[in-house]
Design brief:
Largest sheet: 5 strands, antiparallel
Number of domains: 1
Strand order of the largest sheet: 3-2-1-6-5
CATH class: Alpha Beta
Number of helices: 1
Shape: elongated
Helix content: 25-40%
CATH topology: minor pseudopilin epsh fold
Radius of gyration: 25 Å
CATH superfamily: minor pseudopilin epsh domain
CATH architecture: 3-Layer(bab) Sandwich
Number of strands: 9
Structural class: alpha+beta
């Protein structure tokens, strides 16, 4: 009598491994693009939240609050706070409006709710966002530019 061995042949295992490898080769590049986009969105979200927090602080504390971008140190944040956020190397920020002092781009938020109006463009390679600070309301609006 011949005994029947249960299991898979080497050829069957190799075919399955080939199919799995092919699937991974097709899926992984799409996932890494998604991770890059998620990091970009996180940076934009943090940046905008800091701008909005500056506006809220000015209203709550009843004094002028300054949001500053330091292009040399590649940081941004609210003046008077220790914490400065890093700007990733692949990020380019251009600003119109606002004020420049000591090489820093500054936005002033006032206790009456107004602000120095500005338009900032934040770019990650070909993808970019436009951030608009309304001069009368101090609000921040974000638009992703499709390109």
């Amino acid at each position: 009598m011949r005994s029947v061995s249960e299991g898979f042949t080497l050829l069957e295992l190799l075919v399955v491994l080939f199919i799995i490898s092919l699937g991974m080769a097709l899926v992984l590049p799409r996932l890494t693009v998604g991770w890059g986009y998620a990091e970009q969105k996180r940076f934009i979200t943090d940046f905008v939240q800091t701008l909005r927090r500056a506006n809220t602080m000015a209203l709550n504390k009843g004094k002028v609050v300054v949001f500053a971008i330091d292009p040399e140190a590649r940081t941004y944040g609210i003046e008077g706070e220790r914490r400065r956020e890093k700007i990733p190397l692949e990020v380019e920020i251009r600003g119109e409006g606002g004020a420049e002092l000591e090489g820093q781009f500054r936005l002033y938020f006032y206790p009456d709710g107004t602000a120095t109006g500005a338009e900032l463009t934040v770019s990650f390679g070909r993808r970019s966002w436009t951030l608009r600070v309304h001069p009368l309301l101090g609000t921040v609006r974000v638009e992703e530019e499709r390109g």
